[in-house]
Design goal:
Blueprint (H helix, E strand, L loop, with lengths): L1 H4 L5 H25 L16 H17 L4 H19 L1
Helix pairs in contact: 2-3, 3-4
C-alpha cells in the first residue's frame, strides 16, 4: 500500500496532471472569447484548443528529461510519445 501512495509524490505525474488541468481550464475563457457564452462543461470535454493532451505529454517529457537526463531511455520514450500525440493533435 505504501508504494501505491507514492503516486502522490511523483513529480513527473503531478506536473503532467497540472498541465492538463491548466489547459482544460483555459478552454472555458477561450470558448467564451469565440462564442460569447460560458460553457463550464468544456473543462471535462475533449477537443478544442489548447490541447490538454499535448500539454500533458510535453510536460511529462520535459520532466522526464529534467529528472532522468535528456540522454536517458525514459526521456527518449516520452519524447517519441510526445511527438506522436502532438502530430496527431495538429491534424485534428
Amino acid at each position: 500500500m505504501h508504494e501505491l501512495l507514492g503516486i502522490f509524490s511523483n513529480r513527473v505525474l503531478l506536473c503532467a496532471v497540472t498541465a492538463w488541468a491548466v489547459a482544460q481550464a483555459m478552454k472555458i475563457p477561450t470558448y467564451w472569447l469565440v462564442e460569447k457564452k460560458w460553457d463550464w462543461g468544456r473543462f471535462f470535454g475533449s477537443g478544442g484548443m489548447p490541447s490538454s493532451h499535448s500539454a500533458f505529454v510535453f510536460s511529462m517529457a520535459l520532466m522526464c528529461g529534467l529528472q532522468e537526463g535528456f540522454s536517458s531511455a525514459v526521456f527518449a520514450v516520452s519524447f517519441m510519445l510526445m511527438a506522436i500525440v502532438i502530430y496527431d493533435a495538429l491534424g485534428v
